[in-house]
């Protein structure tokens, strides 16, 4: 926990367990499935353990924003975990704190018992990360980029060469392996970053919107690859807006809104008898029948 950060003030949304939170103005209590409140310390037996993870942007300014608010969550080893939430819910911010890219205002994150901010080097060796909108080394070719990622992790050249070709094939990028990354399409960039995240065979993959802009054939290949990885004991965390995809692909899901955890558990626990999409809309609310208001948009 950082020394200089001020405590985050509880708001009227806060409930002691975080389980059922009255929403300001609605007078309504929304309940989602939440596991029993975890202990104060991160769980060393979980693949990922978050305790009170909080990020406040612009502390002390008029624009101060609590992007992630006391997020506590345990991700078991071998889980394929979906993190879902509306635009601006705090997914990228939470994942950035978990992966050592953004320092938390408060709280802790551990990966297989390693404190991400206490021992960032060891934690980063244990995971592969697909960040959202990260700059790439644009002048490297796709093949060079994956090779660089492997060498950076201290792998020997022969293994890196072999795995790079395997990954290029899996991502359907073999023919474009020699092309500079700056000339890749959005989907190709996503795939080459995914390959770079996987080359050192980490025990945990943290992937922010991995399927965004990826074509359906490549997406199916990547999905299969990730499912095999999870079946063999690897842990995957993916953020996504696509509920149908999360329902089909993931075995666990966490729903966040306004930086808070609304529900978490197995997909079956969270969705109950409804689809995940229905559960999600029910939990986060906010459906606006906006079409009714935009009368000027209707063609005559
Ligand atoms: N660097 C920043 N400075 C100030 N506010 C920020 C910053 N980064 C994010 N935010 C704010 O924090 C909140 C959470 O943003 P975040 O990017 O984590 O959401 P998200 O769930 O990943 O959204 P999306 O699904 O649209 O990618 C938003 O209100 C956003 O405007």
Automatic annotation (TrEMBL):
Protein's name in the database: ABC transporter ATP-binding protein
Location relative to the cell: Cell membrane
Keywords attached to this entry: Antibiotic resistance, ATP-binding, Nucleotide-binding, Transport
Positions of the UniProt region annotated as Disordered: 1-47
Alphabetical list of PROSITE patterns matching this protein: ABC_TRANSPORTER_1, ABC_TRANSPORTER_2
Topological category with respect to the lipid bilayer: Peripheral membrane protein
Compositional bias of kind Polar residues: 1-16
Pfam families: ABC_tran
GO cellular component, one term: plasma membrane
Domain ABC transporter as annotated: residue spans: 48-283
Organism from which the protein derives: Kocuria soli
Main location class: membrane
Annotated InterPro entries: AAA+_ATPase, ABC_transporter-like_ATP-bd, ABC_transporter-like_CS, ABC_transporter_ATP-binding, P-loop_NTPase
Listed GO MF terms: ATP binding; ATP hydrolysis activity
Gene Ontology annotations of biological process type: response to antibiotic
Organism ancestry: Bacteria, Bacillati, Actinomycetota, Actinomycetes, Micrococcales
Keyword ATP-binding: yes
